[in-house]
Amino acid sequence: MSRIRLATRAALVGVLGLAAIGVARASGPQASVQIDNFAFSPVPVTVLAGAKVTWTNADDIPHTVRAEDGSFHSKPMDSGDSYSVTFAKPGVYSYFCSIHPKMVGKVIVKSP
Fold first, then answer.
1. Structural domain boundaries, residue 60
2. pTM for the whole thing?
3. Using alpha carbons only, how large is the chain's radius of gyration in Å?
4. Of the residues 25, 50, 60, 85, which has the maximum number of CB atoms within 10 A of its CB?
């Protein structure tokens, strides 16, 4: 095989490798959930263990984020306020707004 072909293949492998790293970064260390119009979005949100999830209230009234199992609970968040949780262990974490209990969501945490 010629040097040009080898160099082209090496470059292609490098580019594909960087693309894979970019995908992992985009879905790995953090995720965002918007609170708007009395709903969490996206639902569910899926992250890797060790990732931080941040909820931001875009509604014009207060909301909270409270785990069904009691493992986390925000204070009432006004419009523009945020709350974050870092999920260390894989599992499914269901949550709701304690002010508006019909607002529900889920974080799915997978092994890295």
1. 29-110
2. 0.75
3. 19
4. 85
Q: Are residues 108 and 45 in contact, defined by beta-carbon separation less than 8 angstroms?
A: yes
State the CB neighbour count (10 A cutoff) for residue 37: 8
Does 9 reside within a domain? no
In a domain, 24, yes or no: no
Tally of domains within the chain: 1
Q: Where are the alpha helices (DSSP H) in the chain?
A: 3-27
Which tokens belong to 102? 């019909």
Q: 41 lies in a domain?
A: yes
Residue 50 in domain: yes
Q: What is the pLDDT of residues 12-58, one digit of tens each?
A: 334 333 333 332 233 458 999 999 999 999 999 999 999 999 999 99
Q: Can you read off the two tokens belonging to residue 83?
A: 């709350």
Report how far residue 101's alpha carbon sits from residue 94's, in angstroms, rounded to the nearest whole number: 12
